Amino acid sequence: MASRALRNFVNGEYVAAKAGQTSAVVDPSTGEEYARAPVSGAADVEAALRAAAGAFGGWRDITPAERSLALLRMADAVQARADEIVAAECRNTGKPVGITMAEEIPPLVDELRFFAGAARVLQGTSAGEYLADHTSVLRREPVGVCAQVTPWNYPMMMAVWKFAPAIAAGNAVVLKPSDTTPVTTLLLAEIAADFLPPGVLNVVCGDAGTGRALVSHDIPRMVSITGSVRAGMAVARAAADGLKRVHLELGGKAPVIVFDDADVAATAAGISSAAYFNAGQDCTAATRVLAGPGIAADLTGALAEQAAKTTVGGLDVPGADYGPLNNPAQLARVEGFLARRPGHARVVTGGTRVGERGYCFASTVAGLRQDDEMIQEEIFGPVITVQRFGAEDEALRWANGVKYGLAASVSTRDHGRAMRMARLLDFGAVWINTHIPFVSEMPHGGFKHSGYGKDLSMYRFEDYTRIKHVMSYLGG
Q1: pTM of the model
Q2: Catalytic residue among 104, 249, 378, 462, which?
Q3: What's the CA gap between 168 and 151, in Å, rounded?
Q4: What is the pLDDT along the chain (476 residues), one digit of tens a residue?
């Protein structure tokens, strides 16, 4: 069967890229190509940014109510076409269909509706006289054209996390999806075109070079990326010359601190669910377990039992708990961590590829030490590491002793200890007796090498605005 030819979405329509280069879009369940996407060049990026710049003035000047209505209508359309969108997402990522429908469509739709509401309730300081005979007013205005880059682990979800708040605030967007997962981002732009003026939301496909051309261009006033630390650093450097605002949501290495008073069975089930979801390809995945001295052995055994019950498979495996890794490079990365493990590491279960077709990897539990590579570096796969700590201060030191600072969790029945740990953990989100829930109203974003800025919530919405002081002289 011939590969489907994808095109960029610019100024309200699909357009062929001026650059002739393309790249394969592969089904991770099979490892087989099923589409070709353009690798957009500088001219393609220029065209998309010009379209966004041309649309910005009109979109900025309409009322918040009109922008809100457009996003509400888009949310309804996404919900109505959920089957089509999920089918495209799962073909492009290998995710299980039922899980994707249940776990990604509802929050995606909710985020569109949340930011639709946010557009109408943006608050500012009231007008006042802070200098005799002068009245001061603060205006919140959109930033302008925003350049956005999304990752391959949650293509459709991350697209909405990026463009919904930007558009709600009155900005225009050019978004580059990952080169391995462009399909649903293009579909979302097509759906949005029924409700947005041409040029407000544009999608250009491509590789790292396309991303560099986008974020280093003079037109964007803000750059937002969700991706690896390496990619985030490159984006920050490219944006620096233009003094663009930068939002970085990068890697994570979430500690899950389990004290001796936790319920072993319930905690193991919760950790496994939050670790293996999306094959562990989640920067908040519960894959770094720090277990108390009295619970470590039992918890490790319970995690191994959970791993044995967890099913991995491609789209041809009904009821799979998670699907394949996204691409062959990611499979090789995960395999490499296991191959390089030190002699003292103990693989309790898993640690191997599953099958010869596609990129599936077994649910894995391994015992390691604080300085080991698999503790310090993000694996981004279905691998749970376990460390046995001796005391609370050691657990805290180990938890904070990585370069990442995105998310963490604490499992204990001791409320005072939980709140004490939450205060001292150097992470942007801390869950207590749970791990991984998100809500549209609360911010998501990290510290240290996990980046800066927030997704979700009014904090994200306000990031896409700038503040202007207007002072009026009241004298004669």
Answers
A1: 0.94
A2: 249
A3: 22
A4: 568 999 999 999 999 999 889 999 999 999 999 999 999 999 999 999 999 999 999 999 999 999 999 999 999 999 999 999 999 999 999 999 999 999 999 999 999 999 999 999 987 777 899 999 999 999 999 999 999 999 999 999 999 999 999 999 999 999 999 999 999 999 999 999 999 999 999 999 999 999 999 999 999 999 999 999 999 999 999 899 999 999 999 999 999 999 999 999 999 999 999 999 999 999 999 999 999 999 999 999 999 999 999 999 999 898 999 999 999 999 999 999 999 999 999 999 999 999 988 999 999 999 999 999 999 999 999 999 999 999 999 999 999 999 999 999 999 999 999 999 999 999 999 999 999 999 999 999 999 999 999 999 999 999 999 999 999 999 86
Q: Which of 205, 283, 378, 462 is catalytic?
A: 283
Judge whether 249 counts as a catalytic residue.
Answer: yes
As given in the structure block, the two tokens for residue 258 are: 């389990």
Among this protein's residues, is 33 annotated catalytic? no
